[in-house]
Amino acid sequence: MNMNTVAIDIRLIGSKRTGDEAVFRNLVRELLRRNDGLRYVLLTDRHGAEREILESVGCDGALPKNAEIRVLPSRNRFTWNLISVPSFLFHERIDVFHTQYILPMAIPRRTRVVVHVHDVSFRAFPKLIGIVDRIFLSIFIPHAMRRADLVVVPSEFTRDEVVAYYGTGTERVLVVPNAVDPGFLADGALSGDGRRVREAYGLPERFVLSVGTMQPRKNIPVLVRAFAALRSRMSDVSLVLVGGRGGRHYDTAIDSAIRDTNLDGAVLFPGYVAQSDMPELYAAAEALIFPSRYEGFGIPLLEAFAAGTPVAASDIPPFHEVGGDAVTYFDPSNVAACAKTLYTLLTDSRLRDRIRRSGRDRLDMFSWPESAAILAGAYRELSGHNQ
């Protein structure tokens, strides 16, 4: 009996796109470990990336027999969706195609489609992205939502947003929760005292940490201004912003906030931090602060829980869904509230200890193997319709 075949767009793996990449890397790794009767074709547009992909998904030199990497030639994301993927799907017998957000206009009807949506911030806050991207997404996302046999989302909040904004039936939206990277849970991951990462990235002895892209929805200018108020009371603490400064959709108001508050030298941008260094970086931080106005999930919350790092975060629904009582929350639009919450978190030892204990308990609620099992079950159900 032939195996049903699932093709997964894995271009995110190796892209250094923080949360989105982590989701696909971890899900693919766990799917490949399962003996679920499915065949996997991993689609990439990068020649010579096989070794990096194998390392990323935890394969020791070779993929399992039920999987292969296929390189589809493509100059950019447009030719990928207009030519490369449709050509592949029409020439190969693919039962399920799993991609992120954007779907080619031409896909054979025999192929079931899974569209992965991490959040719909582009719809909730359209003015926070460029006009070209806004037009592009307004054309292709509705098409993807209509064509998808299943929309995968990381949280109940995002499921409700997809239903509200696109009219997608709840029966076609599946919650597959994110989890923490296993590197945070490995033996020895947190054994260092932080000295190595401080030296490697030029970090001070005391700092609070923010992790993620630096798009406007991440609300970093409010964090910078709140941190300026904190510095007036705790002058030995710095702010470390891990992410792509100057990257796509970079919020230039961050630079303005730093200039306005005279924080040059107190706000540090280490750039991309290797995944293997992230557990020690979190553990070295006094606290994680996550000030976003909008998110679909919040993997950094779980990373902080794993590292035993206290968390202050925006009072928004997905953070409550992930963090529960293991987070101290603040109004993301209120600079004073953010500053007060952060100061309390840094100075109240009993609060810090309670949050650490609660964080360890929250970790047990999220598991990549369990999420991969949910996804594999959906693949089997969808591919069964093609028999």
Key descriptive features of the protein:
seven-stranded parallel β-sheet; six-stranded parallel β-sheet; globular; alpha/beta; 15 helices; 2 domains; single chain; Rossmann fold; 387 residues
Task: Describe the protein in words.
The structure is a single chain. The chain has two domains: 194 residues, Rossmann fold (3-Layer(aba) Sandwich); 182 residues, 3-Layer(aba) Sandwich (Rossmann fold). Helix content is 43%, strand content 15%. It has 15 helices and 13 strands. The strands form two sheets. The protein has a seven-stranded parallel beta sheet, with helices on both faces. Helix 1 crosses helix 15. The model has no long low-confidence stretch (mean pLDDT 91).
CATH superfamily of the largest domain: Glycogen Phosphorylase B
What order do the helices and strands follow?
Answer: EHEHEHEEHHEHEHEHEHEHEHEHEHHH
Mean pLDDT: 91
CATH topology of the largest domain: Rossmann fold
> How many beta strands in the DSSP annotation?
13
Strand content: 5-15%
Strand order of the largest sheet: 3-2-1-4-5-6-7
Structural class: alpha/beta
**Overall geometric form:** globular
User: What's the CATH class of the largest domain, please?
Assistant: Alpha Beta
Q: What characterizes the major β-sheet?
A: 7 strands, parallel
Q: Which regions are unreliable across 5 or more consecutive residues at pLDDT < 50? A: none
Helix content: 40-55%
Oligomer kind: single chain
Counting structural domains, the number is: 2
CATH architecture of the largest domain: 3-Layer(aba) Sandwich
